[in-house]
Amino acid sequence: MRGWRSLLPIIVFTALYAVVSLSVTNSYYQLVMTLVPVWAIFGLSWNLLSGYTGLISFGHAAFFGVGAYAVVLGQIHFDLSPWIMIPIAAILGGIAGLLIGFPTFRLQGHYFALAMLAYPLAILYVFEWLGLQEVTLPIKRDNPIAYMQFADHRLYTLLALALMLATILLTRAVERSRFGMALLAIKQNEAAAEAAGINTLAWKLRAVTLSGAIAGAVGGFYAVVLLVVTPQSVFGMLVSAQALTVAMFGGVGTVWGPVIGSVILIPLAETLNAEAGSRFPGIQGVIYGLAIICVILLAPEGLFWKIRDFMRKRSAAPVAASPGKSDITTAAAELVPLRPKRSAGTGDVVLEVRNLSRSFGGLKAIQNVSFKLRRNEILGIIGPNGAGKTTLFNLLNGFLRPGTGQILLDGREMSGRKPHELCEAGIGRTFQIMRPFLRMSISDNVVVGAYVRARTDAEARQLATDAIARVGLSDIADRIAGELTTKELRLMELARALAGQPRILLLDETLAGLGHDEANEVVAVIQRLARDGMTIAIIEHTMQAMVRLVDSFLVLDHGAVIVEGEPEAVTRDSRVIEAYLGKKWMAHAPH
Amino acid sequence: MTQALEGFLQALSAGLLIGAVYGLMCVGLGLIFGVMRVINFAQGDFMMLGMYTAFYFFTALGVQATFGNTFGPFVAIVLAGPVLAVFGYFVHLTLISRVSGTRTSSLEGEGHYAQLILTLGIALILQNGGLLVFGSVLASIRTPLSSSAWELGPLFNDISVFVNKARGIDAVVSLVTMLLLTLLITRSRVGKSLRAAADNPTAATYMGIDVDRAHRIAFALGTGITAIAGGLLATNYPFHPFVGVEYVIVMYAGVVLGGMGSIVGAFWGGMTIGLVQQMSTLILPTQLQNAAIFVVFLLIIFFRPQGFFGRMVERT
What we know:
The structure holds two protein chains of two kinds. Helix content of chain A is about 60%, strand content about 10%. Chain A is an alpha/beta fold. In chain A, helix 21 links the parallel strand 9 (about 505-510) and strand 10 (about 535-540). Chain A starts with a helix and ends in a 10-residue tail after the last helix. Mean pLDDT of chain A is about 80; it is low at about 320-340. Chain B is mainly alpha-helical. In chain B, a hairpin with a 2-residue loop joins strand 1 (about 150-155) and strand 2 (about 160-165). In chain B, helix 2 (about 45-60) crosses helix 9. Chain B is globular and about 65 Å long. The N and C termini of chain B lie far apart (about 55 Å).
């Protein structure tokens, strides 16, 4: 029900647009009415890859151009109608996406953006060399409809609108599924996404394939509308720029962005061109450029987000006064001063690490580390700065490949596996530096972590709800992550790791940045998890909070284990004191 | 055989000379990109402005009358550099600084989206504004040297290589500019602040360096240098208001080739592009010259994404 009601604005918009377009008779403006949805679709295609994953593509013209040329050449050489060729163009665009994506996704950030720039331009010159400078669709007088050639140009607008509606629905379906969640997670932090069990390369490839397919189809349609295709008009840099301009102007990472951008910018540019283009050549480009600059300075993330944030502020102001009181405070009350009596340390070995080593150049970050983690145990990993604690976690969850040694999970060798595979196998982790998805609610944040276990979206929601309840954030589950305190964010990240139903939790400085009371609340939550049967390894810098929490300590210094054992024994160990305070303080230490 | 060798040497010399100017062009962008990490799409259009500025210095502002036809163009070209540097300074002050530098932390994707679209907007205004102001007629800054050559040789087997005089002087001007810039960056206080801001903006701020000011200086310098390179190119190639688009790709290819963040690297990157472009004429049809650039660009990006001189920095 909720889904259908939110479709209403889209349907109303499309219907209104159709009515307006039908009333336009001037053939030039009719063309403009058709181009608006065309560029909106192209923007949506760009948005699907770049808006959701954050990998900016300057090369979407590659897919657009492939589609456009496919349609024209298909009709010229094989007499295939655009009705057949546009779907084929979509397939070709998808294949192009896959072929380009596979090697290019190895690159990140600026390198990715610039590599994408090169593809359409290289293709452009090849097409010029092939002698395809200007190719025209043959006019079919016998059976125009079968070749998508309409006497009434308003039909093109309606067709374009139908395509746009289909693209919007497709994008929305993606946005709300695990697909969209995976892409958003990649955008926020690719490493964290991998650790949450998301196969990032696979999702990115799906995104670029789908994006390429949409771009190919709309490129093919564009060729039908304009009848003439030149390398510059479909592979040129301005074509790629058009996709990114409408999307960024309207708003990145939302269905509405490219539509808003296209509805405003395309008629503006075209009207200026028609009205003033002959007297002042280039005036439309100048005003277009000015409009873009003004909007980006006032709303750097696009119009949609500016408007939405503005509306939110107005409607949220009175509500924010009554934040739900979380049940953490009650949890804190049951904080047990001593370690609860559990059958810790005697269970089966879940994780066994044997002689693990890893070096970076000459630096031995981890040297010959071995330990066992038993079911239902809480292991505290401590050590001074640079001792290799986080590196150890990175080895355990697959961010780094071990140099030598073994990682056995239930006796199975797991070293060298990818992070998302290890997550699937049951290793969940949180990060020292928190990476929440700031615009999403707590429940949406946590759902991302649930997909690794859940087969359906409903199941994922259920797992997320359970995980949120376990950390005591149920009352504020709908709050946006950007509004949370550090403690709530830490708990949310914990819930995200829990949602994947791990068997072992690796917690990296979960208590960092928390005040004394807040730390106690989080400790209480961790204790409850342990009581319910979770196996936990936790990194901490300081020992105070840990002594009450853990069953045993593993002390690292310079990448090697210096002591291992019960908390009471470890805190009195002279080697530990030395590692923390240096030799000089040894004399002052209590013996 | 002799003919093939002669062709090869001719292409090699042409590649080296063009490469020197491409190198300077890339250094301008490399400076901006290396220090600020901003992808500036308007760089090609700044270059176009540099070409027109040199053109008007030469024809309208008396440089031709004072320095004559032969060397006047080079004086005008060098004069255009500071003018564009001032222009770049104000573009950064009024526009770029709002979406880059220390203000980016609050923006999504570290402000990359905003920077891209902003520089695209600037590029649009410059290209189309250029069309309004300068018209669409091809312009050029020609000197008599553009159509005469030095003959090197005969070297051996009666092979001699012809070096276009204007291109030869272009390459020399380019190398001298490059040398001065290198001195400025390695020796001066300003240069140190630029390098510090590039290396670690946060740490630089703590050390009392005004990072936004460093960015502004880098942007001004980069704009001025690219403008000089543009003027040098204009002694042999006619230009128009949309010429920037053709070169901005070459610039980025060069910068990435050399390794983002390395000034010397950017120069060699540009040099490589020049060589690839000229040498490819030996085996490829002329239309595929530019395709060859992109193929080399892609190959390098895949096999050595940090470029010749860059280093990979990974942060988790």
